[in-house]
């Protein structure tokens, strides 16, 4: 029978994909208004939290709003109906609507905003634009009775252990003899109190990223038959998965800058965009960064980009791009709206996997502040 998820459940699953620690320092990600300690019948995904979005949430009986752009970039000095922020907070509290923001962490996360933009553009992702971290890796070694090796192996892999390249559930094991003596008060799976018990066991080892280490250990403990599980955790010098802001991608075939700009317009459904460079020049290597990419034109050039797709381009930065021979396409900041479908689909799939009846919807409110003439 399906059940309704709590806010804590939903954000736990969400942060397994887009953990808060990926966010840039000072970025106010996470809970903004309300509580996660409640049942959530409906989630709404939005780019921005404007008053029109909150009104839409109220009309649709939404319990939780997940936004890309934080509602509160700075602390409020007062909550008053005389300004939009105050009215928003009052409405949210009155109608018990929780707001959670995933900003730069969703930009950095694989499968997040920048990957969604690349998918919309039909380009093949090759690398990150700016590396921000390499995830730390650990070796987990657990000693398992041979009768339960399959159960424990599956639990480890299902929890995220053993990912090497395009392979999952990777483990190595060797047979051996485990020995133990249950003492007074023990409740052993095998053996008798006060007597040495010897068991045919395997030493099973696997590689685990830091982000899922606690989840993996919990799953291992639940699948293991012993009252006290014997295991070791070793930090590794190996580098884990690269994470970073923006993406370096490649077109299947070269095309003119003008043709690619038309593709960008169509992909993001924008009526106009700004173009820097020679429209007749051929491009193949594409840098993509949602939002404000002014600080990263040099990085795009160093990475070998022929064209940089980003937003909020400044006048003088456009001159700098021309000077270094980098073409730039600026379709605006609002094209990050592609994250709405991405987050919606992630949650919908997760709810189906978990047999959760919680509904998820995409906000239809228009939050692009600019009009084009």
UniProtKB/TrEMBL annotation:
Residues at which a divalent metal cation binds: 68-69, 107, 333, 336
MF terms (GO), sorted A to Z: metal ion binding
InterPro entries attached to this UniProt entry: DUF34/NIF3 (IPR002678), DUF34/NIF3_bac (IPR017221), DUF34/NIF3_sf (IPR036069), N-reg_PII/ATP_PRibTrfase_C (IPR015867)
Q: Is Flavoprotein there in the keyword field?
A: no
Q: Which UniProt keywords apply?
A: Metal-binding
Q: Specify the domain of life of the species encoding this protein.
A: Bacteria
Q: Which Pfam families does the record cross-reference, listed alphabetically?
A: DUF34_NIF3 (PF01784)
Spell out the GO cellular component terms annotated for this protein, sorted alphabetically and separated by semicolons.
Answer: cytoplasm
Q: Which NCBIfam families match?
A: YbgI_SA1388
Family affiliation: Belongs to the GTP cyclohydrolase I type 2/NIF3 family.
What is the recorded name of this protein?
GTP cyclohydrolase 1 type 2 homolog
